[in-house]
């Protein structure tokens, strides 16, 4: 070996030999013993399947070109590398990975990655930018980029780097960075399982759920929820994938997940389902799809009965078959699983004379000829649903007949074995009937085994016939298929039905019904797509139209699989049909199933998904659910107190499952950090001076600095991956100290029971969503019982902190721009503002006003009834419309007096500005009180207004002038005492003799306010003034000569001013006491968030999993939790019956004694009752001396006291130690 092919790397001698154009000359003796007879430690195929790599224990690495084979199918060796095994740890070779452009990465000392370039006849080490120790997983992707996962420590977050292998100064720079969740108790089970060449990251959380994260699209998918039976054991997880499928091996389970269809399509138990595996391998269709994944899942597992059965029954037979056709030279005696690799195109067998490449398509062809007779129905075992193949064929058959009239039939008969299957359809006035009869295939008196008739109520006018018993045009049947299991699939004009035939008991059951309206071929094409993947869940009409289907689901409510699948539809039906008993049964069953398996949250989602309907018809169930699910502890959570994490999490701080963050925006800032690191390393004094300058700059811009870095950190434009840089280090240190001011406060973690409560429908059309968006259960359910609990408050906190406060701030800023423009145009005197500037301000006000008004119009279109009931919406519309109208008038007609419009416009704009404070808790509580109190007394105010109008009418009739008059000229000889000229003040002249003249010398001219009862409108206003204490409007008449006026004044004063106004004050006081709580504020905040979600977020944003997760958790202060539990116990709201074990654990951890299960001492109770009875008798005898004691009264009193005593004892059963 030449010296130039040896390199020294960290005192380790590596030598490389590049074999160029030599494979053709290499003799078979050398190939006979691969790696000089040493065991093979690692076998790999590069991402794009260019090279097949083998690594030997002696430190040798052989590279085989996949496309370069000799005549007998063996791969030709292209290069070989030798490492010095005297200083090399063999474990390094286990994890070595290779790329298609001849790059290699190995794990070095303490998990450091070593990268090498194997091109140009040399082994050259490549430096990795930011190479951490303790790297856990790495892989090359299809673009020859290196994906590396650095696990991190307990207190640090793991980092995922994506390196470009385009060498720059003998160095790989990272181009993307991702950060996994920080280590907290809820993420204790966070584990990276696999990083694939398809830029997919697979990870597991708390031994519960496996997720897929796409590094390109940054989308997360839930792949699989691990069975409770497996979670209770020690198990390993292995994942492999290709472009279409994901293969998982979880303990004894094998799952194949379809990426396109997003559903598991194969689920096998390796201890029980060997026959099913053999069926897969015998099928050309299934084998071509699953063969590569299954072989990869069992790599390096040589002692596995499941896989040994596959090798013996499948692999060897295929090899023998190919050998007979001269595809192989010889067949080795033994096969080990690690000696086989399969890609999408080839199978590679490592034999004793070399590596053979076998064309996978030829192998599939071999399968067809070997096992064709054994395969009956490949889809009936595990793919999708056993009925999907038959349903697909049924749709195709029906499509071929349409639009011919022969496509539908009134009756169909099938013969299977010795039995005849007869189907009939009859249409009546209000319903259709489909009958099914199974009988003996005999001409004479055939025996009827069983029969069934199902009625289907239809709202389709096509089926509404005039005659009660008419069976005209009753051809409902399209076609029928009988599955392998004997189930009957029926396609009709009113839907698809599946019947199950129990031959042992001769019983027919309707096990599936999906309502459809099939009258045209276009309808059939649509529903064919609906049934293309799997059986869809029955729609709402299915439950409403078929009693047989409802009966089936009700009877199988104890079947967990059926209940979880159809529970939402059944509960919807029960609520709409007001089946109270069924609602209770479904609720109890949901709680039972969740109690038995805390990891399965589907039972809770059945209830939360239907909360809008429950809130409308049976709100008591929301209160019950809120009480029953208070403080649910995650099943994997162990009680060792958590503390406030560094991110500033606090009491009722919500979070969802782990989220991987993309930090790639911080690449520029990261390079700046690296430059400072180099400066500090090479020029220490210069670095000190530079740091001093940075500190001075921070002091100069201190307020702006924190705001700017908060925004930058929020959107990941910089990170805290290094502590050697001043700007980010100082920011994170200050923020960390501020958030950890109470870091010793113990915390608990609770599950928020409102599962899928915030999720929006996945299927939507964006243009419809912009006009009338589909709501979520959160938006439709505004119920105070939700927000009485910590779960509801935590939910609001999560939404507000995630997106709510940012959108609210933007809306507020936009409104302040609108307010500022119009206020400036209306307030600044004309002589101090330029006309062009004034015009621009008005035009800007109009534009901004229309922007705000457009959102109000969308709310009106969405739900006018709900919009009109919201008190704040009135202020919103007036605040937007009035300034717009005023601005338009001002621009067009400058001569019109618009001062009143300006005045009211500014008033409503200022009120609207004030209303923005209602989202802030410090002010929002008072706004909530104002509105809730107003809603409480609105009916009283209406009554009060009617009474005032009635009195105004009475005063108007009494005090209206009876003669005509003019305010300009006094009347002549007018004795009408209601005439304004007779009411105004008159001044008389004092004569020289001291007498007063008989005629007025000066008369004050009257106006409209002299007698306010001239007009009915001013009469009402006069009554309002009287109500406020100003009685001047009725003080111009003498009371002694007007007894009617005096009576009305007294009545008004007593009834309105004294009685009703004091009653109003009392009602206000009671309403304030009732509504003076945080619940009203939280409801108000929930309404604000609902408005933001529906009308400000884009349709795509409403489907972001980061903002609208299915499951949410929250922190709770341990001390506050103790106080809350004691409050709930005191109010008789603490229920220990449902989740007894979990709640007992919580009470124990919080050092609260649980006496709920202790029975009351019956002797003590009886003794107390006896003493009470004796005392009562004594008291009755003392008080009632003339007659004996009423025994019935005594017995009734004793019973009441007994109940009271029992309740008191029960309330005190949970006490603090």
From TrEMBL:
User: Ion transport domain: from which residue to which, for each copy?
Assistant: 809-1078
- Can you say what this protein is called? Ion transport domain-containing protein
Q: By its UniProt entry, which PANTHER family does this protein fall under?
A: INACTIVE, TRANSIENT RECEPTOR POTENTIAL ION CHANNEL PROTEIN
Q: Where would you find this protein in the cell?
A: Membrane
* Keyword Transmembrane helix tagged: yes
* SMART domains (alphabetical): WD40
Cellular component, GO, one term? plasma membrane
Q: Keyword Membrane, does the record have it? A: yes
SUPFAM superfamilies in the cross-refs: WD40 repeat-like
Give the main localization category: membrane
Gene Ontology molecular function, alphabetical: monoatomic ion channel activity
Pfam families to which the protein is assigned, alphabetical: Ion_trans
Regions that span the bilayer: 692-712, 806-829, 841-861, 873-892, 924-957, 1045-1068
Native organism is Rhizophagus clarus
For this UniProt record, the keywords arranged alphabetically read as follows: Membrane, Repeat, Transmembrane, Transmembrane helix
Task: Name the InterPro entries on file.
Answer: Ion_trans_dom (IPR005821), TRPV (IPR024862), WD40/YVTN_repeat-like_dom_sf (IPR015943), WD40_repeat_dom_sf (IPR036322), WD40_rpt (IPR001680)
């Amino acid at each position: 070996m030449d010296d130039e092919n040896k390199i020294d790397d960290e005192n380790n001698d590596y030598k490389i030999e590049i074999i160029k154009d030599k494979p053709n000359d290499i003799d078979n003796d050398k190939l006979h013993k691969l790696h000089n007879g040493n065991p093979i430690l690692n076998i790999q195929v590069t991402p794009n399947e260019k090279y097949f790599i083998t690594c030997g224990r002696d430190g040798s690495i052989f590279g085989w070109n996949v496309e370069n084979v000799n005549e007998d199918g063996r791969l030709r060796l292209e290069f070989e590398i030798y490492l010095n095994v005297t200083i090399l740890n063999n474990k390094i070779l286990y994890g070595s990975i290779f790329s298609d452009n001849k790059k290699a990465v190995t794990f070095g000392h303490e998990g450091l990655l070593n990268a090498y370039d194997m091109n140009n006849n040399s082994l050259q080490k490549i430096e990795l930018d930011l190479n951490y120790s303790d790297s856990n997983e790495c892989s090359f992707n299809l673009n020859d980029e290196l994906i590396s996962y650095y696990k991190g420590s307990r207190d640090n977050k793991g980092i995922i780097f994506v390196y470009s292998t385009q060498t720059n100064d003998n160095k790989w720079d990272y181009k993307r960075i991702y950060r996994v969740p920080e280590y907290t108790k809820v993420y204790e089970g966070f584990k990276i399982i696999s990083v694939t060449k398809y830029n997919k990251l697979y990870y597991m959380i708390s031994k519960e759920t496996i997720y897929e994260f796409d590094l390109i699209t940054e989308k997360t998918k839930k792949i699989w929820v691990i069975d409770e039976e497996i979670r209770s054991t020690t198990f390993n997880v292995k994942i492999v994938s290709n472009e279409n499928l994901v293969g998982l091996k979880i303990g004894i389970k094998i799952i194949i997940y379809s990426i396109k269809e997003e559903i598991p399509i194969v689920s096998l138990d390796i201890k029980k389902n060997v026959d099913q595996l053999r069926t897969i391998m015998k099928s050309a269709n299934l084998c071509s799809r699953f063969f590569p994944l299954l072989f990869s899942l069992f790599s390096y597992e040589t002692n596995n009965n499941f896989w040994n059965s596959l090798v013996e029954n499948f692999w060897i037979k295929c090899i023998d078959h190919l050998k007979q056709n001269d595809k192989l030279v010889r067949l080795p005696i033994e096969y080990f699983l690690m000696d086989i690799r399969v890609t999408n195109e080839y199978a590679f067998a490592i034999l004793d004379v070399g590596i053979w490449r076998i064309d996978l398509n030829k192998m599939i062809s071999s399968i067809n000829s070997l096992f064709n007779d054994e395969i009956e129905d490949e889809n009936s075992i595990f793919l999708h649903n056993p009925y999907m193949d038959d349903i697909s064929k049924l749709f195709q058959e029906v499509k071929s007949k349409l639009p011919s009239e022969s496509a539908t039939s009134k009756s169909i008969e099938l013969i299977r074995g010795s039995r005849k299957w007869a189907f009939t359809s009859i249409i009546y006035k209000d319903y259709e009937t489909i009958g099914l009869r199974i009988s003996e295939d005999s001409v004479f008196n055939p025996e009827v085994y069983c029969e069934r008739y199902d009625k289907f109520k239809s709202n389709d006018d096509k089926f509404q016939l005039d005659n009660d018993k008419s069976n005209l045009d009753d051809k409902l049947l399209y076609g029928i298929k009988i599955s392998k299991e004997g189930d009957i699939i029926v396609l009709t004009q009113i839907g698809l039905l599946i019947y199950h035939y129990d031959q042992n008991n001769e019983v027919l059951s309707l096990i599936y019904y999906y309502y459809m309206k099939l009258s045209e071929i276009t309808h059939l094409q649509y529903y064919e797509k609906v049934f293309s993947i799997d059986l869809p869940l029955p729609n709402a009409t299915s439950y409403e139209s078929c009693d047989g289907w409802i009966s089936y689901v009700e009877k199988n409510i104890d079947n967990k699989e059926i209940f979880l699948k159809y529970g939402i539809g059944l509960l919807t039906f029960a609520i709409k049909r007001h089946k109270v008993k069924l609602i209770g049964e479904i609720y109890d069953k949901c709680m039972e199933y969740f109690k038995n398996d805390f990891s399965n949250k589907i039972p809770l989602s059945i209830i939360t998904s239907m909360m809008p309907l429950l809130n409308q018809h049976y709100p008591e169930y929301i209160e019950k659910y809120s009480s029953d699910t208070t403080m649910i502890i995650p099943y994997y959570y162990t009680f060792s107190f958590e503390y406030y994490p560094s991110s500033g999490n606090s009491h009722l701080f919500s979070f969802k499952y782990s989220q991987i963050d993309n930090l790639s925006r911080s690449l520029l800032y990261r390079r700046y950090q690296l430059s400072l690191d180099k400066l500090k390393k090479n020029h220490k004094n210069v670095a000190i001076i530079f740091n001093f300058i940075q500190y001075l700059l921070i002091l100069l811009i201190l307020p702006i600095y924190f705001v700017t870095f908060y925004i930058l950190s929020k959107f990941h434009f910089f990170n805290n991956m290094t502590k050697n840089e001043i700007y980010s280090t100082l920011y994170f240190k200050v923020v960390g100290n501020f958030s950890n001011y109470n870091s010793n406060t113990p915390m608990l973690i609770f599950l928020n029971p409102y599962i899928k409560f915030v999720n929006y429908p996945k299927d939507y059309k964006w243009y419809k969503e912009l006009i009338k968006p589909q709501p979520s259960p959160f938006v439709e359910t505004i119920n105070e019982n939700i927000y009485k609990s910590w779960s509801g408050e935590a939910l609001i906190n999560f939404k507000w902190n995630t997106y709510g406060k940012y959108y609210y701030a933007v809306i507020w800023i936009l409104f302040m721009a609108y307010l500022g423009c119009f206020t400036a145009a209306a307030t600044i005197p004309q002589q101090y503002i330029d006309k062009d500037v004034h015009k621009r301000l008005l035009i800007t006000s109009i534009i901004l006003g229309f922007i705000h008004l457009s959102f109000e119009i969308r709310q009106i279109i969405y739900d006018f009834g709900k919009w009109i009931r919201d008190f704040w919406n009135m202020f919103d519309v007036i605040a937007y419309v009035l300034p717009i109208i005023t601005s338009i008038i001002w621009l067009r007609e400058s001569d019109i007096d618009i001062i009143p419009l300006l005045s009211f416009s500014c008033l409503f704009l200022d009120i609207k500005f004030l209303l923005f404070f209602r989202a802030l808790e410090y002010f929002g509580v008072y706004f909530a009180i104002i509105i809730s109190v107003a809603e409480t007394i609105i009916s009283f105010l209406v009554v009060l207004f009617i009474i005032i109008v009635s009195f105004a009418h009475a005063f108007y009739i009494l005090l209206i002038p009876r003669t005509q008059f003019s305010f300009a000229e006094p009347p002549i000889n007018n004795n009408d005492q209601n005439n304004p000229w007779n009411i105004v003040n008159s001044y008389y002249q004092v004569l020289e003799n001291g007498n007063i003249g008989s005629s007025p010398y000066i008369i004050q001219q009257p106006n409209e306010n002299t007698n306010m009862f001239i007009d009915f409108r001013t009469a009402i206003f006069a009554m309002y003034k009287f109500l406020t204490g100003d009685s001047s409007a009725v003080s111009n008449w003498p009371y002694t000569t007007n007894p009617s006026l005096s009576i009305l004044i007294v009545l008004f004063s007593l009834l309105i001013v004294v009685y009703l106004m004091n009653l109003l004050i009392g009602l206000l006081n009671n309403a304030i006491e009732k509504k003076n709580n945080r619940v009203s504020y939280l409801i108000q905040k929930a309404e604000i968030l609902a408005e933001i979600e529906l009308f400000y977020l884009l349709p795509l944003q409403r489907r972001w999993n980061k903002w609208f997760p299915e499951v949410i958790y929250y922190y709770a202060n341990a001390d506050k939790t103790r106080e809350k539990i004691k409050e709930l116990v005191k109010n008789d709201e603490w229920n220990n019956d449902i989740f007894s074990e979990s709640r007992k654990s919580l009470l124990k951890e919080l050092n609260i004694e649980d006496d709920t299960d202790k029975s009351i001492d019956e002797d003590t109770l009886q003794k107390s009752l006896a003493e009470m009875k004796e005392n009562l008798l004594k008291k009755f005898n003392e008080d009632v001396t003339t007659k004996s004691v009423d025994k019935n009264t005594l017995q009734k009193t004793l019973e009441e006291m007994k109940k009271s005593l029992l309740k008191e004892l029960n309330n005190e059963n949970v006490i603090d130690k």
